[in-house]
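Regression report. Comparing outputs from two consecutive submissions.

Submission 1:
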Amino acid sequence: MNQEKKTIFTSSLFDFENVEDNNQKSIENYSRIINTGDHRSRIVLAGIIVESYFDRLLKCFFIDYKNLSDRSDFTFSFKISLLKSMRIIPNEIIVLCDMIRKVRNIFAHNFEIDVIDDIDPKLVKNINQLYREKTKSKIEKELIEKFHSLYSLGYSELRAYEKNVKLLRETVDDENFEKDIQKINESRRHIFYENLRKGKPIKTIDRGNGEIEEVFSQGLSVIRKKQ
């Protein structure tokens, strides 16, 4: 069985430049959801907030992100798939946020369900399992409170990795980035040809100017001075 490939970042960086702003946003978002009355309002608002942080994170990396976000088919589900395929942040964060998306969709599109306890039992089981794994808490809570705890963790972890993605983008945009890539490629090219020379050519051509051309099975040639 193939092991899952490692993501670019496995731990978040401390965003010392936006500590106060981030903390204030956390308090505001928490208060907005807590002060919202029914389950539907709390869950839909939680989903909107988490999706907004997906937008923030993706916008940090994609220069022309507006070209994506303006598309009608650029859904929350697609954003999750996109970030997952990029393998920038730990997949466990993506899994948690995808659960929030699924619950949000139920309440956004199903008028018959009013409380979270009435959703698909498989999804209820998923919430309970994630809550145990993420919080390590043995204190029993109502399902809506477990969902809210997971929502808080999800968007907080997304926000925590924003600094990482910003620095990744800055690194790629740096004028020395392309030069560094060229140096790496040149070093590997040198190693490749050194290994190639150790092999046996399939054909040798006398170029008539004191040089011979050795042709190898890869279709590449090496020019040598005649001995």
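Submission 2:
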Amino acid sequence: MQVCIIGAGAIGGFIGTRLAAAGQARVSALARGATLQALRTHGWRLEQGGALVQAPATASDDAAALGPQDLVVIAVKGPALEAVAQGIAPLLGPHTLVMPAMNGVPWWFGQGVAALGDAPLRSVDPTGAIGRAIATERVVGCVVHASTATTAPGLVQHRMGQGLIVGAAQGGLQPRVQAVAELLQHAGFDVTHSADVGRDVWYKLWGNLTMNPVSALTGATADRVLADPLVRAFNSAAMREAAAIGALLGCPIAQSPEDRHAITAKLGAFKTSMLQDVEAGRAIELDAIVGVVHELGQRLGVPTPHIDALFGLTRLFARVHGLYPEASA
């Protein structure tokens, strides 16, 4: 199988190195700048369990040079996705699958839900360009349960977790998605092939919806967020609003917010991905994690006062610090 990784950073490099080292796929990367140079010089590199895993890499900044693939894994930050979609065509053959391994709610989420209509989710696909470039029939939804980081360009450090939930965006169990699941499983991932990956996407989003922006705003690790009773209660209220939205989308949440807090508390004093982005001066993925839930609430007529407040405050904080675009004129 020919696999191309777009975005060979923390998650893309993790998946790419594991696949390349396993030897069942020809793995290339569409990259640029220092990451491209590092891949050309050193190949794929992953630090895990005290050892360095390396494998040869084919890397280019020209999609046409790589050609059509069997699987394209997109692991970029949300704000970069539209530009990726506009240049992805040379990688797509008649049967190419596209697996976005990204945070938050993807552009394809909610398609087919009558209450949402046909309009794209403006928070994550403002012009509809992503949906036009990548047909839903191609999409393998992916939920990542792993913590990784890039310690240098092209060098990934695995911290914990190796779970991947994959499934056809259109739902159901498809043989071609099962082939992807088996490829990833052979590379050492704990893989679940889901018949309703949209529901899995929503469940992870429900857990990240508050912790990410609250930590970004306050600079607090997860344990401190949960230890403050007022903040914890605010988070719970926002999660109940999101659960009401999910119920209308066919993505009910069986847990209570307190159940979820107890799971998160077991992870200890960790920094969320959004807090790490703030500390590194990187643009935050606010739209795919919070803004889209605000949008869904509006479109479905579900009141979301706590989510709205969280979105507004975090958006203003990020704009002041140059981490989120200013409002267009």
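Expected: both submissions complete independently.
Actual: both completed, but the second showed a warning that disappeared on reload.
Relevant detail on submission 2: Residues 38 and 124 are 30 Å apart (CA to CA).
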